[in-house]
Amino acid sequence: MNDDTPLDFTIVNKRLWNAKVDHHVKSPMYDVPGFLEGADSLNSIELDLLGDIQGKRIIHLQCHFGLDTLSLARRGAQQVTGVDFSEKAIAKAEELAKKTNLTASTKFICCNIFDLPDPEELFDIVFASYGTICWLPDINHWARILSNHLKPGGFSLLVEFHPFLDIFDEAYTRIENSYFNHGPIVCDCQGTYADRNAPIRNKSMEWCHPVSSVIQALIQNGLKIEVFKEFDYSPYDALLNSVKIADKCYQIKGLQGKIPIIYAIKASKPIS
């Protein structure tokens, strides 16, 4: 029996994301050269909801190779901890931290977030964004991690692709799947959203978490919903059949302005 029988989501998805790292680092979408020259990788959606992060302690879950983690540090956070299960991504993040002289204000941990140890000191902000929770089978466990890492008075911020997109086929031409979570969606992946021609061939395992499930998980784990927003665009050209509407604003051809593409939830941890 090989290690994919039965499929283990950590093994399958880590193999996929390790394969993506080198192609993403080289891709125009991530624009690493621009970042090294001072460009900010964060978008207005998350920046508006994060507010002033000067002096804050932040943990960034599923940080990939760390551009957003490092951008948070550049914006004045006291300490930013990036977490990702891809050892190739974490190695690249640590390399970029050295190149940008941000090693003193950043730290990177290589592990599945479900295996995160209890923090020595709680965080002001728990941050996760753009293509994170779909790789996790247990949304309640995820919300418990957020709550366990937040200090009273702190908040979590999730900015994520809307699960409504998951009902469609990859080209968004027909309805193909359920909006509700009926177990893992197992796919054979070719290429990657940042480079469709990349020689990547691997399986993936994803889960559709309806927005109601995410909100309810946060509430059940002691967090108070402060903000919930939906957006009809993506700041990244990461979807097939996309149309550029404006700078950092992409919609799906034929569905412009008709469906949600991104949503954001800000939830606080009560002081008492």
Keywords:
7-stranded mixed beta sheet; 7 helices; SAM-dependent_MTases_sf; methyltransferase activity; 272 residues; 11 strands; globular; disordered N terminus; Methyltransf_25; Methyltransferase domain-containing protein; Rossmann fold; 26% helix; alpha/beta
Q: Could you outline the blueprint of secondary structure elements for this entry?
A:
Layout: H1 9-26, H2 32-36, H3 44-50, E1 57-61, H4 67-74, E2 79-84, H5 87-99, E3 106-110, E4 123-129, H6 139-149, E5 150-161, E6 185-190, E7 201-206, H7 211-220, E8 224-231, E9 242-246, E10 249-252, E11 262-268
Parallel strand pairs: 1-2, 1-4, 2-3, 4-5
Antiparallel strand pairs: 5-11, 6-7, 8-11, 9-10
Helix pairs in contact: 1-5, 6-7
Descriptive overview:
One of its GO terms (molecular function) is methyltransferase activity. Residues 60-154 form the Methyltransferase domain. This is Methyltransferase domain-containing protein. There is one protein chain. This protein has 272 residues and is of the alpha/beta class. The protein has a single domain (9-31, 40-268), classed as Rossmann fold. Helices cover 26% and strands 26% of the residues. The chain is built from seven helices and eleven strands. The strands form three sheets. Strands 3-2-1-4-5-11-8 form a seven-stranded mixed beta sheet, with helices on both faces. A two-stranded antiparallel sheet has the order 6-7. A two-stranded antiparallel sheet has the order 9-10. Strand 1, helix 4 (67-74) and strand 2 (79-84) form a beta-alpha-beta unit. The radius of gyration is 18 Å and the shape is globular. The relative contact order is 0.15. Residues 1-5 have low confidence and may be disordered.
